[in-house]
Design brief:
This protein has a domain at 16-57 and 97-172: NADH Oxidase. It has eight helices and four strands. The protein has helices spanning 3-14, 30-40, 60-75, 84-90, 92-95, 115-136, 151-155, 185-188; strands at 52-57, 99-105, 138-143, 162-171. It is of the alpha+beta class. Helix 2 (30-40) runs antiparallel to helix 6 (115-136) and helix 3 runs antiparallel to helix 4 (84-90). Helix content is 42%, strand content 15%. The protein has a four-stranded antiparallel beta sheet.
């Protein structure tokens, strides 16, 4: 077995959703973010439509995202369900992150590519980002709150960009446990030999 395959297998097994409270308060160099995004663009894409689009939020843009998420909570929560603690928490994650990548899609016409294939291509791009972040020692987390529907307008993104989530990133705190388990391959696989 090749060294590359062993390294890749270990990296895939080490990849985890790590939430912003477990990030160190430290910036990520812009060149590293660019390399992560470049890896994202090497995801498979049918007919090379490359439907992924990204907005990189750092510094004061994180405060703008925080405010947009908090505003969404206020506007979409009934008085009976409103809780001040949840309102505050809705805007915390961006402020605990070194950067947030807004994951978007610019879809081709359904006559060119089925919508699910475009979405799958973006998901593959996110997996490339996640593996890249893990290889660098960054914590990362793909969040899909209901507020993503309003973010392109709130953040001033192009009108044809549909938001599929937020990819939070930050330097992983020392000692964060990366242990996890998955079901055995035999539990999720059948072999059809004839």
């Amino acid at each position: 077995m090749s060294k590359e395959f062993i390294f890749l297998s270990e990296l895939i097994e080490r990849r985890r959703a790590v939430y912003p409270p477990f990030y160190r308060p430290e910036k990520i160099d812009k060149n590293l973010i660019i390399k992560i995004l470049k890896n994202a663009t090497w995801a498979p894409t049918h007919k090379r439509t490359e439907p992924w689009r990204f907005a990189v939020l750092t510094d004061t843009a994180l405060q703008k995202l925080s405010a947009a998420l908090m505003q969404y909570y206020v506007q979409n929560t009934s008085q009976e369900l409103y809780a001040e603690a949840k309102h505050k928490k809705s805007g915390e994650r961006p402020l605990q992150s070194a950067c947030v990548l807004v994951i978007c899609i610019s879809r081709s016409s359904d006559s060119v590519i089925p919508a699910w294939e475009e979405t799958a291509a973006v998901a593959c791009a996110v997996q490339n980002m996640w593996l890249s972040a893990s290889a660098l020692g960054l914590g990362a987390y793909w969040s899909t709150p209901a507020a993503i529907k309003t973010l392109p307008k709130a953040l001033g993104l192009p009108e044809d960009w549909e938001c599929l989530g937020l990819f939070y990133m930050g330097w992983l705190k020392e000692g964060y446990p990366l242990l996890s388990e998955r079901r055995a391959v035999d539990d999720v696989t059948i072999w059809l030999d004839s």
